[in-house]
Amino acid sequence: MHFMKIIPVIDLKDGLVIHARQGHREHYQPINTDLCQSADIYHVIQAFLGIYDFDTFYIADLNAITGQGDHDRLIREVLAYYPKKRFWIDKGYQQYDASLKHPKNYLSVLGSECYRDDNISKIKTFGNNFILSLDFSKSGALGASSVLSDTSLWPNNIIIMTLDRVGSNSGPDLDKLGEFCRQYPDKNFIAAGGVRNKQDLMALSRIGIHQALIASALHSGNISSEDIAEI
Question: What pLDDT, in 10s, does the model give residues 194-224?
Fold first, then answer.
């Protein structure tokens, strides 16, 4: 059995952790689940750590992604509170700024939905020190189409984000993920959207995916401590 790394997802909106569903961001509600009744980010991280000693977390700053303020201060405080954990931070369109001294446990996620073909070259300024998120909706790729064709922009680690499957309980997009793994065997692809249970994780592993971003299945208990220990 292949090793599988799970990265819990935290979506922030207006200071609270919210429940993401299928990319309809204006309707997202603060989380209230069996795992964690509180929408406070520290409580949510502790609840995740109660399932398993995860070493990496993904934080999406939905205010920043939609251009309605940001959670920069809160995120800095969280990273300082958990210096031994790694955080992947998605805050929408970002330009590399050498004067911005991010903590060592901060890694930028750049989502293709936030870039256009005329500013996509900004991604190059990050070198290989970021994670690319290739964002898809039902109708196809979101944002800059050239990021799909110009693989010189790609770092080693790439999230395949299927927005209409996020929080949908419909399973991961195995066809799309499998295609990327076959076409670009030298890259590490990370599944995002739709993972429901251990069976889905094993199916991902079989096609060559060894990392997955997960929120709903951890909150619902459909992926348990035992499942994670097994894989």
Answer: 999 999 999 999 999 999 999 999 999 999 9
Q: Is 74 helix (H, G, I), strand (E, B) or coil?
A: helix
Residue 24 binned pLDDT confidence (cut-offs 50, 70, 90): low
The tally of domains found in the chain comes to 1
Using CA atoms, how far residue 65 sits from 47, 79, 207, in Å, is: 25, 19, 31
> Which ranges of the chain does DSSP label H, i.e. alpha helix?
41-51, 62-65, 72-81, 146-149, 174-183, 198-206, 216-219, 225-230
Q: How many residues does the chain have?
A: 231
Query: What gap in Å lies between CA 196 and CA 198, rounded to an integer?
Result: 7
H/E element, 214: strand 211-214
Residue type, position 93, single letter: Y
**Residues 173-182: tens digit of each pLDDT:** 999 999 999 9
Q: Which residue has the tokens 């790439």?
A: 158
Which domain CATH number covers 144? Answer: 3.20.20.70
Collapsing DSSP states into helix, strand and coil, what is residue 187?
Answer: coil
Q: Burial letters for 46-68: b for 16+ Cβ neighbours within 10 Å, e otherwise?
A: ebbeebbebebbbbbbbbbbeee
Domain that holds residue 186: 5-230
**Quick one: CA torsion of 106, 58, 208, 171, rounded to 10 degrees?**
-170
pLDDT of residue 18: 94
| 103-110 average pLDDT score | 95
